[in-house]
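FW: tagging you since you asked about this chain on Friday. Here's the raw sequence from the shared folder, copied in full. Didn't touch anything.
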Amino acid sequence: MQQEPNPKYFIPDYSGRLPDHRLEVRAKKLVTQLSLTPCSSIRKLSDSPAEHKANLRFLNNDRIEEGMLINEVSDRVSQLVTGRHVLVLTDTCEINMSNHKGRLKPNSGLGRSDKSDTAHCFKIHPGLVMDSLNLTPLGFSWIKVFHRDEEMPDRHERNYKKQAIQEKESYKWIEVAQRSKEVLAKAETVTFIEDREGDIYEQFALVPDGKSHLIIRSKTTRKLTSGSSLYPEVDSAPVAGIYKIEVPTDNRKTQYKREAVLELRFISCEIKCPDKVRGKGYPPSIMVRCISIKEISDAPNPISWKLLTTHCIENFEEALQIVHWYSARWYIEQVFRLLKRQGFGIEESELESGWALRKLVIMQMSALLKILQMNIAYSQPEGGQPIDEVFDQEQVEVLHKLNRKLQGKTSKLRNNFDPQTTKWATWIIARLGGWKGYESQGPPGVIILKLGLERLGYIIEGIKLEKDVGTQ
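HL: got it, structure written out here
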C-alpha cells in the first residue's frame, strides 16, 4: 500500500540523529529558517546576533557529519515509495566559490574546478525521486558530495582509460544508483534517468536488476553483436510513430518557441563490451533498447536524441512513455538552478569553510523541494498534489487571506484553481513573488516561486510577531 505524501515527509527531523539534543534543536531551527527565507546568508537567516553565531557554530561543528544529514534526507523518502514506480533523476552540479578564494580556509573540503586548477569548489551528485505517474517530487534518495583533490594527477598521469571504474570520478553514477536502490527497496520499480555522462557500459552491467532500470541519453554509437553499429541500426529502423511537442523559447540557445514534429524509431539490440573494459569481469554483451527521436524540421538546432533503456519496448506508446520519463530530467536542472544565483545563492555564501558550505547545501536540498512541488503543480491540469500534502494548516490559513487581497476584479486576474490543490497555492505565492497573474505572461518559474515563498515566510513571521505583542 502506498504511503501518501504529507508535509511531515518534507520537513527534516533530526531527532536521535545528531550527537546531542541541542544540536538537533539547532538543526531544526536552521532548516526551518531556510524554508522561510531561501538564501545562503547565515546573517539574513538569523533573527539575532546570538542566533547568527549559533548557526555558524552548528555548520562549523566537526561533530556534525555530512552523512548524518544525508541519511536523514534519504530515510524520509524511503517512507514514501512503497508500491510505487519511482524515477530517480541524477546529475552533477559544481559549486564554485572562486569569488571568495581570499576568505576560504585551505584543506576544508574544497578542490579543483572543471575550469581551473584552483581549489575553490566542490560537487554534488543527488538522486531526485519522483513518482512516475504524476511526477510528484518525493525527496532525494542519496546526495553524494565530493571534491577533486588539488594534488590529483591528470588523466594521462593516472592512465585514466585503464583505471577500474571504482577509481574513476564517473563511478558516482553507479555509487548513487546503488545507494538509492538500498533506500528505495520498498518501491515496486525504480528507473534511473541520466544524461550522456552516465552512458557507461559498467553501469548497464551493475545497476539493472529485476526491478531497477536505466534510461540514459546515449553519448556515442556502440558496436553491436550483430556486427553493425548502434546509430546506423536504429536510424534505419522503420518509423514507429510521429508526435508533436511545444519547444519553449530559450535565449541561451537562440531557440524560439515552436511546434516540433518528431519521428520516433526504436530497436532491441545487444551492445558489445568495449575493448577498454574487456577482461574486467563484465558480460561480453548486454541487451538494451535504443530509441531515436528526430525532428522533421529545418530549425537551426533540430532535436535529435538517442536514448538507451533496459525497459522492454514493444510498441510506439511504450517508447513514447520512455521519452516522457526522460524529459523529466529537466527537474534536476531546476534543483541546481535553485541552489545558485537568483535562488539560494550558495556561491555567494560568506562561509569560510568548505565543510560548512557542504552541510549547508545538504540542508538546502530539503528546503527547495517545496518550490519544485509548486512549479510542477502549476503545469498540471489537475493542480498537482493536494494542498495539505505540501503546506501546513497555518500556511493554508494565511494563503486564504492573501488570496482575497491579491485577486483582481476581472476573471483573468482571479485565482480560479481548486483551493484543495497545490496549484491554487502556487498562484498566490507566484503573485507574491512578482508574477502578474496573466496566463499570457506564461507560468511562474522557480525563481519567482522562491521569491514568493520567501515573502510568505516574512508575512507569517509578521503575523506571529503581532500575536506575541498583542498578548503582552
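FW: The mean pLDDT is 90.
HL: agreed, and The CA atoms of residues 464 and 470 lie 10 Å apart.
FW: great, closing this out.
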